[in-house]
Write a structure and sequence with these properties.
12 helices; alpha/beta; 3 domains; 388 residues; binds zinc ion; Nucleotidyltransferase, domain 5; 5-stranded mixed sheet; Arc Repressor Mutant, subunit A
């Protein structure tokens, strides 16, 4: 009985500590504000904060003013309390990077895969490379929270495997193998879902709890974040935005459906529809449109129409606060974004009160690597990594 009670108390303290960490990770905050937001007593907050400060998780900073005009001590996360590793598995090479808790990239390195690719041997090399990186940064192994890995999907998140017959990593138990080599937790996600996690934690969508990440380049993809959770289906194979049908009587897609968005709105698809435009990229269409070429302007209008159709379908179901665009379509995006905003607001079921914002997702270097590392941070703040 006593043991059970003690366990419950420990669980409660941990969950209250996580609650507090999740408040101050978004913005520094005073003890009084934390008590107000959590409903915990001032003394309970003080005890938990003292514990977190002793562990080096939290530190004080002078940023806010209290009611008397005097400076109050706010609390913030110690950015060097823990570190994460990001791994981006590409078709012929990989990139690894080490990050602090604020998501700052400390060092990144890339390598080609072995010429004679063998998954086991390649994972051992990646593991050794990660250890070297950590050592070169002078980081203690116990301060590493885990390894986040992202790859082109589909991926089986539970099994830590890529399920894609064209990938060299197809059916390889990446997480299990790397975890047994490194003795850290490993998490695998597809690039779009990982990117949504990054946007939620560090990117332009930090202020939203429900948003859609929507990417158009060689293909159409994305992810849905609803009330701070990435929605991806019961086996986590969802979020295949490219296969939303926008023409039920259209051509058959290789996925089995008809008239999929990807067949019309991906950059190769839109280029094929406007062969009069010189150049072989979205950039060439946009540059010509801004030079006044009417065909290029028409191509942008057409692309906006396709994308809007996909977005309206999603908005009618999820009612996001924002839709964050990413990929090639974000090149000189003003015209395209204005057209999409107009289209979406006119075609939405709640058009009278529609106020979802069309914004640009974060545009920063090493975005896939950052997204991979963000997977670890997400697990940490959800209390799924035993660190505090
Ligand atoms: Zn399809």
């Amino acid at each position: 009985m006593n043991t059970e009670k003690a366990t419950n108390l420990i669980d409660m303290r941990t969950s209250n500590a996580l609650l507090i960490l999740n408040i101050i990770r978004k913005a520094p905050c005073s003890r009084a504000s934390i008590a107000k937001m959590t409903g915990l007593s001032r003394s309970a907050v003080t005890i938990i904060i003292d514990h977190l400060m002793q562990q080096g998780m939290v530190e004080e900073t002078q940023t806010s003013q209290n009611g008397t005009g005097r400076k109050a001590l706010d609390l913030k996360i110690c950015k060097n309390a823990g570190y994460t590793i990001g791994v981006h598995l590409r078709s012929q090479m990989y990139t690894i990077g080490v990050f602090n808790l604020e998501g700052e990239l400390l060092q990144a390195e890339s390598n080609d895969y072995h010429k004679d690719f063998l998954p086991e041997a390649q994972l051992e090399s990646i593991g050794s490379h990660i250890v070297q990186l950590i050592q070169s940064q002078g980081i203690e192994a116990k301060k590493v929270l885990g390894v986040g890995i992202c790859a082109s999907g589909p991926v089986d998140v539970q099994a830590g495997k890529v399920i894609r017959s064209s990938s060299v990593w197809h059916e390889v138990e990446i997480c299990q193998r790397l975890s047994s080599l490194l003795h850290w937790n490993c998490f695998l996600e597809n690039r779009s879902n990982a990117r949504a996690v990054y946007e939620k934690l560090y990117g332009k969508c930090k202020e939203y709890s429900s948003f859609i990440f929507f990417k158009v380049d060689e293909s159409v993809g994305g992810a849905i974040v609803y009330k701070d959770e990435v929605l991806s289906g019961y086996r986590r194979f969802g979020n295949e935005f490219g296969h939303i049908s926008i023409k039920h009587d259209g051509k058959r897609c290789e996925c089995g459906n008809f008239g999929c968005l990807d067949m019309y709105a991906s950059i190769p698809a839109i280029l094929k529809q406007f062969p009069q435009i010189a150049g072989d990229s979205w950039k060439s269409i946009v540059d010509e449109a801004y030079d006044g070429n009417p065909v290029a302007i028409q191509a942008i209008k057409q692309e906006a129409d396709y994308i809007s159709t996909g977005i309206v379908n999603l908005c009618n179901i999820f009612e996001p606060e924002a839709i964050a665009l990413a990929g090639d379509i974000t090149y000189r995006p003003n015209l395209l974004m204005a057209l999409i905003s107009e289209d979406v607001s006119e075609r939405h079921i709640l058009r009278e009160v529609f106020n979802s914002k069309i914004i640009l997702a974060d545009q920063i270097d090493h975005i896939n690597l950052r997204s991979a590392a963000a997977l670890v941070v997400e697990e940490f703040y959800q209390g799924k990594i035993n660190f505090i």
